[in-house]
Amino acid sequence: MWELQGGRMEVLLGTIAYIAVTFPLAIAWHMKVFYKLYKEWHYFGNSPKPIIGLLAIVIQGFVLSYGYGLIDVVHESLFSGLAYSAVMGFFFWTCHVLSYMAKNEKTRQWKFLMMESVYLSVQFGLFGIMIALIHRMI
Description:
By secondary structure, this protein is an all-alpha fold.
């Protein structure tokens, strides 16, 4: 089976770090600061369910943190954390932004593309730093 570089503690702390970065940022960005725009774009549907979003974030955090331990890099390196996070963030961007634009004509505009790109850049930039620091500490 796959050999995990590091251990369970890095996965647990990485998952917690991802949740700590992503959930508050998602709520503030989508449901507070830019709420009117996202409502105009019909981003939420009629009844947003943040608890389901939190569940998705928990799963994502676990998968991303576990995955980082599987790659053969210097895990304590800030560059490695940011590079891993950039690749994963780009994957999420294609799933999250491009696919949403394909399904919802109200989001087929540059403003949505730019706002979500900035949001994901902040989210994955912070996570990349945190995952590298976690591996440096442990």
